[in-house]
Amino acid sequence: MTPQNTPKLSDAQLTWLLSPIRSSRVGKDGKGFAHVEAWDIRRHLIRCFGFGGYSTELLFADLMHERETPAKNGGKSRWTVVYRCAVRLTVKVAGIELGRWHGIATGDAINLPSVSDAHDLALKTADSQALKRAAVNLGDQFGLSLYNNGSHDAVVLRTLAHASGGDLPASDPPVQPEPQAALPPAPEPQAAQAAPQPTAPPQPPTAPQPDEREKEYAAMMHAAQKVNFTEGLPDQFRSFFGVPVEEGTADQFRQARTLMEES
Q1: pLDDT per residue as tens digits for the range 71-116
Q2: Which tens digits make up the pLDDT trace of 24-70?
Q3: Average pLDDT of the residues in 133-151
């Protein structure tokens, strides 16, 4: 690429890209992690690079799983579908390619009554998630800072390739691990019981009984791990039951576990 063909970001583009993301653009996904909607990513790609300033290419879309669950009462079957997609994002400045990046993601639809709707939802989810993962290579305005424990503060701050003077920041905030779905933490150990009084016969300690909802939640997450479904479970739990996992009941956790065990 000759110097004449080197893409150059405008001052306005560079200033915006190095700014922190607005809190109003950040929501929570089904697992409680900070995220940006895929349509908002597309909106800001257009705002920053213009119409025709970016393109996406679907590298592959693989059907990973399809399962029909016949209704026991003679009604309509239910369908569970999982897709995996890879998307390449290419960005141009004044018609000259700035860069290209790819993202890979899975998407699922659980227990839907329509097989076509199940395929549609799972494929669109995988495609949208893959685009978002490719776009984070453009920095904080496209969700990069959210990987730092959900922070809305800018983490790029400056790039020497476009610096107008000075060096990179002398120090950065502590780097936090990227969010990962996990099983609920183990309960705290119970305090040791006091020794019985000499006048009373010793009583055997009573083992703490886990709450039914906690027990069913742990069983559901264990089943999700066995079928490699922990990442997609929260979104589909909300889709099927109408509430986030955090507000689910023991019976709902039990139903979700049964569906995964039957898959």
Answers
A1: 888 788 999 999 999 999 999 999 999 999 999 999 999 999 999 9
A2: 999 988 788 899 999 999 999 999 999 999 999 999 999 999 999 99
A3: 95
Tokens 């990442």 sit on residue: 231
Tokens coding 54: 């970016």
CA distances from 186 to 182, 183, 214, 218, 259 (A): 11, 9, 11, 10, 25
Instruction: Give the Cα separation of 227 and 2 in Å (integer).
Output: 51
CB 179 within 8 A of CB 150: yes
Q: Which residues contact 88 (CB under 8 A, 6 or more apart)?
A: 56, 57, 59, 100, 101, 102, 134
Q: How is residue 9 written in tokens?
A: 């970001």
CA distances from 163 to 4, 140, 158, 159 (A): 19, 17, 7, 6
Label the pairing between strands 96-112 and 27-28.
unpaired
Residue 227: partners with Cβ closer than 8 Å, 6 or more residues away: 260, 263
Cα separation, 127 vs 131, whole angstroms: 6
Cα separation, 100 vs 104, whole angstroms: 14
Residue with tokens 């609920």: 184
Q: Whole-model pTM?
A: 0.64
Rg for the chain, CA atoms, rounded: 24
Least confident of 33-42, 65-74, 172-181, 211-220: 172-181
CA distance 3 to 10: 16
